[in-house]
């Protein structure tokens, strides 16, 4: 029976248990006398207690209740004593006492009432004997019951078991990030990059991992190894974010055992301050440059780790925003990009971050070579766009003469499109420039550059982070959605070119329409509703969003009496019943 197994350890210690009582009662002639004798031998052996027990009987207090309360009291005292021993006297002596106590009590580890004491002793031992750890590891219930301090000792020599514990947390982390990117709340003020680094580090997964690692360098290294492997396998940049957040979470707790041995610590700490400000100022730029220049011969491998820290989207976002700001300043100063050391450093770090996957994959640890044309051709071209805006704005304010107003430049240099297709850094900066002008409500510049986004380096313009930011910034141009021309350029010319082959784009367009449908020209809205209808292959998320949109549009439809016929400008399409009206 189950209870017999629970008390099996008592016999080894020479303490009578239920089996002994059963045997005594089976083989005796006078059961009552036998019970009395068993009680005397195994009760609390205090002479003064013998006369007090009958007094409890008079009050109808069962002996079990009495013994249980004495037991609970003693266990509490023992737990307090164990915790006190762990802190007093010389190190060797206190651990010797705890080891002796563990040796005596371990056989009772499966007894629910004694288990907390055994677990407490193990928790306070920096090195639990190997044999005991193996017994705990082999028993699911014991493993579950033991403290994280004991589990760390088990994990550090069992990477697979540690991996099983960490894996669901990493999955949860990625899912949380994706949920934010696809959130139905679209805003220019609150987006993916809004929470401060310190707030992000309070997240459940980072806190749990920090707790699991404690001060154990070996476990920290294992987690970093998992993150590198997953980053290589999936190319998912959120693993890079977690790499930086974990280090900074240990930094917050001042765990010097780990921070001092991670060669990226000071670099990450400095970059973290930049991310908090969403800008790399001159002083911090010098510091970051010092770390990069200080990588010594024979230690190049640290570049792999630094590149992963710089590949964190929060780092890329900060570097790209700073680059755009620098370019605007250069326009005002009449200075070329190649003459700005600060700008060159930002490009160097962007380049290192964007090259993280290739570096870790190839295991060739050297900084990627920067293409000269990026600095001599592409960035000046972006600056010329800024100049175009200035010129146009000044022109608008001048009194118009006979020649009429000068139109906004509508063409884009072919070289710009080519750069966005072939150069990763140019593409990243170009996309951030487009986000920048959208946020400024610069419709002219937006429509001019939008065609360049249809084909970009490794489809970056259709990545979740860019589309999340773009949809947020497009709310600034909300009123433009009433114009057919604007909608055609944005939807037909950009979004719909990728919807059928990229499910994520389909989701982002539906998110945008859920937010702005009331601003879109009705005829356009109808054709968009048809174009965005999910196919059999569409995932649940797309179907769910589409249904939400359909419901919203149904609510907006005027009653039949209010509808007046308007001549249709388009060729008649065969009517397809919408899912709601079937």
Structural summary, described in words:
By secondary structure, the protein is an all-alpha fold. It has four domains: 44-155, no CATH class; 158-262, no CATH class; 270-370, no CATH class; 418-550. It is built from 32 helices and no strands. It has helices at residues 2-6, 8-12, 18-26, 31-42, 47-58, 63-85, 91-105, 115-123, 130-138, 140-145, 148-155, 159-181, 197-200, 204-213, 217-234, 238-252, 256-259, 265-277, 282-293, 302-311, 313-333, 341-354, 356-362, 372-397, 414-422, 424-439, 443-449, 464-474, 484-499, 503-516, 522-531, 540-556. The longest helix has 26 residues, at 372-397. The model is unreliable at 566-574 (pLDDT under 50).
Short description:
The chain is an all-alpha fold and 582 residues long. It has 32 helices and no strands.
Round the mean pLDDT to the nearest integer and report it: 88
The percentage helix is 55-70%
Percentage of residues in DSSP E strands: under 5%
Overall structural domain count: 4
Quaternary status of these chains?
Answer: single chain
Shape label: elongated
Distance between the termini: 62 Å
C-alpha-based Rg, rounded = 35 Å
**How many β-strands, per DSSP?**
0
Number of helices: 32
Poorly predicted regions: 566-574
List keywords for this structure.
COBRA1; NELFB factor; 582 residues; 0% strand; 67% helix
Could you give the topology of this structure?
Elements lengths: L1 H5 L1 H5 L5 H9 L4 H12 L4 H12 L4 H23 L5 H15 L9 H9 L6 H9 L1 H6 L2 H8 L3 H23 L15 H4 L3 H10 L3 H18 L3 H15 L3 H4 L5 H13 L4 H12 L8 H10 L1 H21 L7 H14 L1 H7 L9 H26 L16 H9 L1 H16 L3 H7 L14 H11 L9 H16 L3 H14 L5 H10 L8 H17 L26
Helix pairs in contact: 6-8, 7-8, 12-14, 12-15, 14-16, 15-16, 16-18, 16-20, 18-19, 18-21, 20-22, 20-23, 21-22, 21-24, 21-26, 24-26, 25-26, 26-28, 28-30, 29-30, 30-32
């Amino acid at each position: 029976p189950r209870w017999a197994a629970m008390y099996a350890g008592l016999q080894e210690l020479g303490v009578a248990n239920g089996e002994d009582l059963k045997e005594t009662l089976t083989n005796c002639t006078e059961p009552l006398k036998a019970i009395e004798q068993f009680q005397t031998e195994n009760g609390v052996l205090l002479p003064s207690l013998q006369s007090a027990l009958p007094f409890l009987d008079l009050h109808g207090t069962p002996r079990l209740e009495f013994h249980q309360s004495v037991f609970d009291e003693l266990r509490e005292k023992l737990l307090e004593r164990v915790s006190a021993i762990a802190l007093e006297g010389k190190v060797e002596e206190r651990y010797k006492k705890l080891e002796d106590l563990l040796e005596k009590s371990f056989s009772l580890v499966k007894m629910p009432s004694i288990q907390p004491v055994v677990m407490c002793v193990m928790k306070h031992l920096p090195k639990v004997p190997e044999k005991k750890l193996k017994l705990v590891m082999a028993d699911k219930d014991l493993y579950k019951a033991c403290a994280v301090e004991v589990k760390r000792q088990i994990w550090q020599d069992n990477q697979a078991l540690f991996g099983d514990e960490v894996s669901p947390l990493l999955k949860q982390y990625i899912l949380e990030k994706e949920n934010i990117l696809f959130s139905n709340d679209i805003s220019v003020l609150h987006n993916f990059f809004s929470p401060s680094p310190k707030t992000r580090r309070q997240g459940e997964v980072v806190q749990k991992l920090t707790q699991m690692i404690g001060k154990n360098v070996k476990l920290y290294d294992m987690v970093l190894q998992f993150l590198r492997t997953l980053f290589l396998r999936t190319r998912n940049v959120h693993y890079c974010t977690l790499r930086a957040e974990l280090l900074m979470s240990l930094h917050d707790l001042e765990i010097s055992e780990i921070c001092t041995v991670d060669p990226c610590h000071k670099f990450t700490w400095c970059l973290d301050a930049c991310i908090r400000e969403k800008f790399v100022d001159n002083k911090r730029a010098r510091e970051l440059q010092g770390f990069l220049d200080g990588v010594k011969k024979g230690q190049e491998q640290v570049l792999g780790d630094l590149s992963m820290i710089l590949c964190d989207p929060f780092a890329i976002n900060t570097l790209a925003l700073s680059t755009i700001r620098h370019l605007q300043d250069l326009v005002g100063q009449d200075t070329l990009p190649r003459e700005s050391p600060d700008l060159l450093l930002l490009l160097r770090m962007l380049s290192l971050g964007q090259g993280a996957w290739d570096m870790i994959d190839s295991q060739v640890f050297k900084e990627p070579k920067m293409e000269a044309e990026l600095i001599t051709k592409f960035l000046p071209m972006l600056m010329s766009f800024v100049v175009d805006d200035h010129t146009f704005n000044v022109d608008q304010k001048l009194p118009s003469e006979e020649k009429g107003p000068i139109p906004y430049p509508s063409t884009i240099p072919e070289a710009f499109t080519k750069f966005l297709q072939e150069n990763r850094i140019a593409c990243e900066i170009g996309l951030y420039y487009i986000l920048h002008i959208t946020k400024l409500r610069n419709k002219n510049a937006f429509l001019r550059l939008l065609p360049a986004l249809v084909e970009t380096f490794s489809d970056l313009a259709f990545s979740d982070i860019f589309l999340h930011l773009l949809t947020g910034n497009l709310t600034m141009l909300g009123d433009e959605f009433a114009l057919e021309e604007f909608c055609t350029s944005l939807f037909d010319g950009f979004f719909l070119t990728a919807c059928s082959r990229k499910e994520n784009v389909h989701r982002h367009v539906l998110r945008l329409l859920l937010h702005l449908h009331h601003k879109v020209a009705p005829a356009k809205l109808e054709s968009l509703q048809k174009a965005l209808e999910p196919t059999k292959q569409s995932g649940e998320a797309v179907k769910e969003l589409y249904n939400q949109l359909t419901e919203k549009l149904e609510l907006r439809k005027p009653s039949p009496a209010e509808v007046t016929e308007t001549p249709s400008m388009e060729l008649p399409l065969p009517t397809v019943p919408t899912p709601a009206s079937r």
